[in-house]
Design brief:
This protein has about 250 residues and is an alpha+beta fold. It has helices spanning about 5-15, 45-50, 100-115, 135-145, 240-245, and strands spanning about 20, 60-65, 90-95, 125-130, 150-155, 170, 175-185, 205-220, 225-240. Helix 3 packs across helix 4.
């Protein structure tokens, strides 16, 4: 499947699920002094998540152009050293503004990746990570989706501070944030690297392809986590990564 076909398939899928297709925003954020470049699909919806702005839809989908060459999400140091990092890339995303939450978001992602009408990825090749204390996400993946427990990894605060985790996503040092669940693809034993959470996780065998963030908090400058007006969903899947998997 070519990149253009995959991009369109993603938008078509989420349009069928009641999402409004929203154009990619500028690489330079319009009214956000906390960011130098747009680094995620949710940037243009920041004020919607915070309850400062209302739109005429509660579900959205985008293919957002992003740059990660500085700031909190800086991939520049990794380019050329791994098989998965870029500075400029496109992020496929679906968003809920107080509409659906964990169960629907997980099911949407799994159906698109593994469904016979969509990407048809082999289920046994997919691994899942969750925030360590997120039992609800674990139960959805394990009991409802059917992912084996040994393919679901709990990731705690592994970066030296509360909420500093690979599975607690933050747009920047302040702003909307929350626990997340990530979907990884196993490229097979011929590629070096171990599963997420293992000492060998930085190899390229297991590649994160989709991050589903459960937006629940607004992080303040002093670190305080204030609840968002409505629990929401923000997801991102690298177009280049999933295209590489399919090809």
């Amino acid at each position: 499947m070519k990149t253009a076909e995959l991009r369109q398939a993603f938008l078509d899928y989420f349009k069928q699920q009641g999402h409004t297709i929203v154009p990619s925003s500028s690489l330079v954020p319009a009214d956000d002094p906390t960011l130098l470049f747009t680094n995620a699909g949710m940037n243009q919806f920041k004020d919607v998540f915070l309850g400062r702005e209302e739109r005429d839809y509660t579900r959205a989908t985008t293919t957002q152009k992003c740059v990660r060459a500085g700031g909190k999400h800086n991939d520049l140091e990794n380019v050329g050293y791994t098989a998965r990092h870029h500075t400029f890339f496109e992020m496929l995303g679906n968003f809920s503004f107080g509409d659906y939450f964990k169960r629907e978001a997980i099911n949407f992602a799994w159906t698109f990746l593994t469904g016979d009408d969509w990407l048809k990825l082999p289920k046994e090749k997919l691994w899942i990570t969750i925030y360590a204390s997120d039992d609800e996400a674990f139960d959805i993946w394990n009991q409802e989706i059917g992912v084996p427990a040994d393919h679901i990894v709990r990731i705690g605060d592994n970066k030296g501070a509360p909420y500093a985790s690979d599975n607690f996503w933050q747009m920047g040092d302040t702003g909307p944030c929350g626990p997340c669940t990530e979907i990884f693809y196993d490229h097979g034993p011929e590629v070096a690297g171990g599963p997420p959470g293992s000492p060998e996780e930085d190899g390229d065998r297991y590649i994160e392809i989709w991050n589903v963030v459960f937006m629940q908090y607004n992080r303040q400058a002093d670190g305080e986590m204030l609840p968002l007006p409505k629990p929401s969903v923000d997801t991102g899947m690298g177009l280049e990564r999933i295209t590489a998997v399919l090809q």
